[in-house]
Design a protein that fits this description.
Layout (H helix, E strand, L loop, with lengths): L2 H28 L4 H10 L17 H12 L3 H8 L5 H6 L2 H4 L2 H5 L5 E4 L15 E5 L2 E12 L6 E7 L8 E7 L5 E3 L13 E12 L3 E2 L5 H37 L1 E2 L2 E2 L4 H30 L4 H27 L9 H12 L6 H16 L2
Parallel strand pairs: 1-4
Antiparallel strand pairs: 2-3, 3-7, 4-5, 5-8, 6-7, 9-10
Helix pairs in contact: 1-2, 1-3, 3-4, 3-8, 4-8, 8-9, 8-10, 8-11, 9-10, 10-11, 10-12
Family: Belongs to the acyl-CoA dehydrogenase family.
Catalytic activity: 3-sulfinopropanoyl-CoA + H2O = propanoyl-CoA + sulfite + H(+)
GO molecular function, one term: acyl-CoA dehydrogenase activity
Length: 376
């Protein structure tokens, strides 16, 4: 990894330790959005990483996004997720009209927050089951439907909404930009979650919600392809978030086992503990290598990136769960107490195996791609 990336990592790690970590336990305990950390991140320009300089961003590549997600999640997964959610607005830079692009600087600066509305009560991995509709009317579109488990729901200023623009049996979908103050948008109760409790999550409901024509991103029948392109990037960002949790859990385990004394010596010196730590390190470093390979493949436009991004999602998020689980075990009874960060990391890890494409779906993608290459 080159000097620019390593220097950036050091900067974000220092920021995470000083500005994010102090709030992590509190936002988890009280289920509060990471307001302080999000505001502090604006000075560092984290929300603007992928946006071109002309829109107030830093024109950073995907590796910088991945490093930022990883280092933030190392101390607070909720903060990592809420900041990374700003990056989805880059879909407008690629596909939006000039009027929509006027909204980008506010997001790139961190002044405005964003969320994306894809999942529905009956439509998670099966996008073709989406029932939210956008009907063409004079001067715009009318959206009706219910989106479920929306990250930054009720907290974000702008929402990217995937909705059907054709009949229920075709693949015509549009992506629409809806503001939190638009008439016809409302929000469900905030979900009381197991983990990542500092990341606001709720239903986003559309009832005869009118948006002007310019709020449609690109072609009104190509929204599915726009979202699928972005999902590759998003999947790698979530992989990095899982990797960050795994690294944070490993750090906590190493520190605790070197401090905890039993039978006259630190438990880190016990053979069984050494074996567990070694296995945790292997999981962290092997998943990191796979993630970075997938990132470089996407940056360079190499074939096979869909399979590798899915493999990275599996490896990094499974590592998050496995390493956090072992770290709790190494803490003994203390790992079960909310006073210790590892208890939160254990809860935060689980959802990474579920959202942005469950790991079962990821395994299907990997198997399908391998079969396609080897069998034809």
């Amino acid at each position: 990894m080159n000097e620019i990336y390593e220097e950036f990592r050091s900067t974000v790690r220092r920021f995470a330790e000083e500005k994010v970590k102090p709030h992590a336990a509190m936002i988890d305990r009280d289920s509060l959005a990471p307001e302080e950390a999000f505001e502090a991140a604006r000075a560092l320009g984290l929300q603007g990483i992928p946006f071109p300089e002309e829109f107030g961003g830093s024109d950073g590549d995907l590796m910088l996004q991945v490093i930022a997600s990883e280092e933030l999640a190392r101390v607070c997964a909720s903060t990592s997720l809420t900041i990374a959610s700003s990056w989805l607005f880059s879909i407008i830079v690629e596909n939006g009209n000039d009027q929509l692009k006027e909204l980008v600087p506010g997001v790139a600066s961190g002044e405005k927050k964003t969320g994306w509305c894809m999942t529905e009560p009956q439509a998670g991995s099966d996008l073709m089951a989406i029932k939210t509709t956008a009907k063409k009317v004079d001067g715009g579109w009318v959206i009706n439907g219910n989106k479920r488990f929306i990250t930054n729901g009720g907290w974000a200023d702008w929402y990217l909404v995937l909705a059907r623009t054709g009949s229920s049996d075709d693949r015509s979908f549009g992506v629409f930009v809806v503001g939190k103050d638009d008439k016809g948008i409302s929000f469900g109760a905030k979900e009381d979650k197991m983990g990542q409790r500092g990341s606001p999550t709720c239903d986003v409901i559309f009832d005869e919600c009118f948006v002007a024509d310019f709020r449609c991103i690109g072609e009104p029948d190509k929204g599915l392809s726009y979202f699928k392109e972005y999902l590759l990037t998003s999947r790698l960002s979530i992989s990095a978030l899982g990797l960050g949790i795994a690294q944070g859990a490993l750090d906590e385990a190493v520190a605790y086992t070197n401090e905890r004394v039993q039978m006259g010596r630190p438990i880190a010196q016990f053979q069984m503990v050494k074996g567990m730590i070694a296995d945790m390190v292997v999981k962290v470093e092997s998943s990191r290598a796979l993630l970075y390979k997938a990132v470089n493949m996407l940056i360079e436009g190499q074939p096979g990136v869909e399979a590798f991004s899915s493999m990275a999602k599996i490896a990094c998020t499974d590592a998050a769960m496995d390493v956090a689980n072992d770290a709790v075990q190494l803490h003994g009874g203390y790992g079960y107490l909310k006073e210790y960060a590892i208890e939160r990391m254990f809860r935060d890890a689980k959802i990474t195996q579920i959202y942005d494409g469950s790991n079962q779906i990821m395994r299907q993608i990997v198997a399908d791609q391998i079969n396609k290459v080897q069998v034809g």
